[in-house]
Design brief:
The chain is α/β, with parallel strands linked by helices.
Length: 346
């Protein structure tokens, strides 16, 4: 806990003075008590006496004052708050290598089942959009709160050739920020990939854009799942820079073989390798996180972990009102006990 006005904490030094004042008043009251002829007569006059209860209301008032002084210092604390609005874009690889069966029953089916479970575990007010990418990227479901529409879109995945991880990120950004004029072919500084035939095209004229700190936009996030390395399209690090400039966190999930493996089906074969280094760099640039899922069970655990952190945020918040409320409650309690026990406000 920290304080916006820490200099006001010096007021807490008044508390020992109040304690000394209370002790002085007790002694003064004791000296002015009428001296009776005998101790026995004094006992009969005083009865059993209030005992320890006489000190409880003053103690509660002292604590109430302390709470009030802390409130004046404007304390802040980092607390976890539910997000009132949230949009999550799922960018999922549908390249041919997702047919591989090293993740049972195969990578695509495992990814679909884990993604559907993730969607069902989210609060109903969270919007979910879906982007599929292979050689190109496509929005298969615009952000919506309808879980049935999202699950139907995930079930419609069709395998294609190529892996354009950068396109998946950029199209997700374009969906989240439709007014920013984001287009895949307009990535500034796009780096050519051998054999892809891509070329660098400068950003066209568009409304002025002011970058924000990475990870600062808390109303949306991108979760990207892939099992291979980029073979075409924009560089994913350029796409990650675009996401970082907009404050969007990109959580990357790697599935499949990290060392490289030749996968064959339908009469042709291809060499695939999970590019973990790039996925980690994407998550670092955007202040997201990288996860590796080697099995279907691992993938489910990853999505379960993500679902718990997608709908809350940790935020430094002023909590002066809590201390002020505590002070009021202690004051009311002190007054109530005093009236109950002694018939007056002590």
């Amino acid at each position: 806990m920290s304080f916006i006005w820490p200099s006001m904490l010096w007021l807490l030094a008044l508390l020992p003075l109040l304690v000394l004042l209370y002790v002085w008043l007790l002694r003064k009251k004791r000296k002015t008590t009428v001296r009776l002829a005998s101790v026995q007569v004094a006992k009969l006059a005083l009865g059993s006496g209030p005992g320890w209860r006489r000190h409880v209301p003053p103690l509660l008032m002292l604590l109430a004052i302390a709470a009030g002084l802390l409130a004046v210092s404007r304390p802040t604390a980092t607390i976890t708050l539910p997000l009132s609005e949230r949009t999550i874009m799922l960018a999922i690889d549908v390249s041919g290598s997702m047919r591989a069966e090293d993740v049972k029953p195969n990578r695509l089916v495992a990814a679909q089942e884990a993604a559907k479970s993730f969607v069902n575990n989210l609060p109903r007010e969270v919007k979910v959009g879906v982007v599929s990418f292979a050689g190109t990227a496509a929005v298969v479901q615009a952000p919506t709160t309808s879980r049935e529409d999202v699950i139907a879109a995930i079930d419609r995945f069709q395998l294609q050739r190529g892996t354009a991880t950068g396109s998946g990120i950029i199209l997700s950004l374009a969906t989240l920020f439709p007014d920013h004029g984001i287009e895949i072919q307009h990535v500034t500084g796009q780096r050519n990939f051998p054999g892809s035939g891509s070329r660098s095209i400068q950003q066209p004229d568009k409304p002025e854009f002011t970058p924000v700190p990475p990870g600062s936009y808390n109303s949306a996030a991108i979760i990207m799942l892939t099992d291979g390395q980029r073979t075409t399209g924009p560089d994913p690090l350029d796409a990650a820079k675009m996401a970082a400039d907009r404050g969007i966190r990109v959580y990357t999930v790697g599935i499949g073989t990290t060392s490289g493996e030749t996968i064959g089906f339908e009469g042709w074969s291809m060499r695939v390798r999970l590019d973990e280094e790039t996925l980690k760099n994407v998550s670092v640039l955007t202040h997201g996180e990288y996860f590796y899922a080697g099995t279907a069970e691992d993938l489910v655990k990853v999505y379960n972990s993500l679902s718990s952190r997608m709908v809350v945020e940790r935020k430094e918040t002023e909590i002066s009102a809590l201390f002020a409320a505590l002070g009021v409650m202690l004051s009311v309690l002190a007054a109530g006990l005093s009236v109950w026990w002694f018939g007056r406000v002590a």
